[in-house]
Specification:
The chain has 451 residues and is an alpha/beta fold. It has a domain at 100-126 and 234-412: 3-Layer(aba) Sandwich (Rossmann fold). It has 16 helices and 12 strands. The strands form 3 sheets. It has a 6-stranded mixed β-sheet, with helices on both faces. A 4-stranded parallel β-sheet has the order 7-6-5-8, with helices on both faces. It has a two-stranded antiparallel ribbon with strand order 1-2. The chain is globular, with a radius of gyration of 22 Å. The model is unreliable at 1-7 (pLDDT under 50).
């Protein structure tokens, strides 16, 4: 994946404690927490070797790599991800390089005409989780090749993480184990790990309960933990931020809004943007907005209290099931992301997210309920004047809407709880009579013109 001339740069990366405890640890050690304080780890990249290439040189190199056919958006940035990974162990499905959708039509309707939606769901398994999983599974493959006694990889999931893990593990020939909350995952999400041959355990608990169990099962290091507690995944997910900046001509937007649950994704956005800032590629940071479902909003509650403490809660049912998390693992990193970018945390209720999804779909999108949370928050901030009409805004779409067909069907049938289906568009059943069809079409077109 690397250009041969880049061997002179010799980039370096290792685990370090996020809270600042001393020590550097190999990325090929089985570890998920700081051995001193028990807190989160992060992958630290030494900047001095990377600065041997100019900002202009990096931009030109990444532009050239992105133009190659079937290029992975993650591994095109290998020096910034896992520099030491051997090419033979990279497990890739051409993830990344997803479309930055020009959503100006939707933006004009809500007072934010400079709007784009980053379609991360246009990926192999239909979500942004692929970006982190290609990194984690590739590192595990190299660890196994080096003789580490790892028998399988495992995760707790609300759907998308399990799909990504199962697919990439299958491609690598590594067994995958998935812990899912019973009856809280869409059928489209559930069938993905089943089809890819993962060992699927549907547990009678919520995501937080699944997370506690998977951490217990992976304690002896024979089964490798693949949740966002593992900071390897952040390295792949941070490439979303870098792609956005590249796609916008290396000029960052004013705002990036992302739906959050376990908080790894906003942490990854910040990490990617901070790297660009440190290397002189950009000269300002976008303001980051964490969007939560009101029924599962511990990070929002912490934000409202000035981040005085981490709030945990039993998350209630929400259509945005992938972010139905009451005890987010990446809390300290997400606090840093919001505070360091003068960012915000906001929430949207079930009516707001469903309305946002339906309105966005009417402008050509096909949004998952999690993306709809971020869009609903955008609608709020635009209406309040927090986001100005001239400001450039990117909303992160985390998954493909086809994974959530039931959400769409029940909206248009008027059957979603806590939701009035303002934009319901059910099919019209008629006799095969041209006169009746013309009359019905005329009425519908007239109603649409007046709306």
């Amino acid at each position: 994946m690397l250009n041969q001339g880049l061997t002179q740069i010799q980039p370096d990366a290792a685990y370090r404690c996020f809270a600042g405890c001393p020590g550097r640890y190999s990325l090929y050690d089985v570890m998920y927490a700081c051995p001193t304080c028990g807190g989160l780890l992060e992958v630290h990249h030494e900047l001095e070797p990377l600065r041997r290439r100019s900002a202009e040189g990096w931009m030109a190199l990444l532009e050239e790599r992105a133009a190659r056919p079937l290029t992975s958006g993650v591994w095109a940035m290998q020096e910034w991800v896992i520099p030491s990974l051997e090419a033979a162990n990279i497990v890739s499905m051409a993830e990344g390089n997803s479309n930055l959708f020009d959503a100006a039509q939707l933006g004009r309707r809500i007072g934010a005409p400079n709007l784009w939606v980053k379609l991360c769901g246009n990926s192999h398994t239909g979500s942004f989780k692929d970006l982190g999983m290609t990194v984690l599974v590739s590192v595990v493959k190299q660890m196994i090749a080096a003789g580490r006694p790892i028998q399988a990889v495992a995760c707790a999931s609300t759907g998308d993480t399990s799909a990504a893990l199962a697919a990439y593990a299958a491609a690598a020939g590594i067994p995958a184990i998935v812990f899912l909350p019973h009856n809280k995952v869409s059928a489209a999400q559930l069938i993905q790990p089943i089809a890819n041959g993962a060992h699927v355990l549907a547990l009678e608990t919520d995501f937080d309960g699944c997370m506690r169990l998977v951490r217990e099962v992976t304690r002896d290091n024979r089964i490798y933990l693949a949740n966002s507690l593992n900071s390897l995944r952040i390295e792949g997910q941070k490439t979303v931020a870098i792609e956005i900046v590249r796609q916008m001509g290396w000029e960052p937007p004013d705002w990036i809004i992302i739906p959050v649950g376990n908080l790894g994704n906003i942490s990854a956005l910040y990490k990617g943007l901070k790297l660009l800032l440190d290397l002189g590629v950009i000269h300002k940071m976008p303001r980051l907005v964490a969007a939560q479902a009101a029924n599962a909003n511990p990070f929002y509650q912490s934000y409202r209290a000035g981040f005085a403490r981490k709030v945990t809660m039993p998350a209630r049912d929400t259509q945005a099931s992938a972010i139905r998390i009451g005890d987010p693992v990446s809390y300290p990193k997400a606090v840093q992301a919001v505070q360091a970018t003068n960012g915000l945390v906001a929430q949207a209720d079930e009516q707001e997210l469903a309305r946002a999804a339906a309105l966005a779909d009417r402008t050509g999108l096909y949004t998952c309920p999690h993306t709809a949370v971020a869009l609903a928050v955008l609608f709020q901030l635009a209406e309040q004047g927090v986001i100005g009409r001239r400001e450039r805004v990117v909303v992160i779409s985390t998954a493909h809407g086809l994974k959530f067909t039931r959400f769409k069907v029940e909206y248009h049938e008027g059957r979603l709880p806590e939701v009035h289906s303002e934009y319901a568009n059910p099919p019209l059943t008629l006799p095969a009579d041209a006169g009746l069809v013309r009359a019905a079409l005329a009425a519908r077109l007239q109603a649409r013109a007046g709306s």
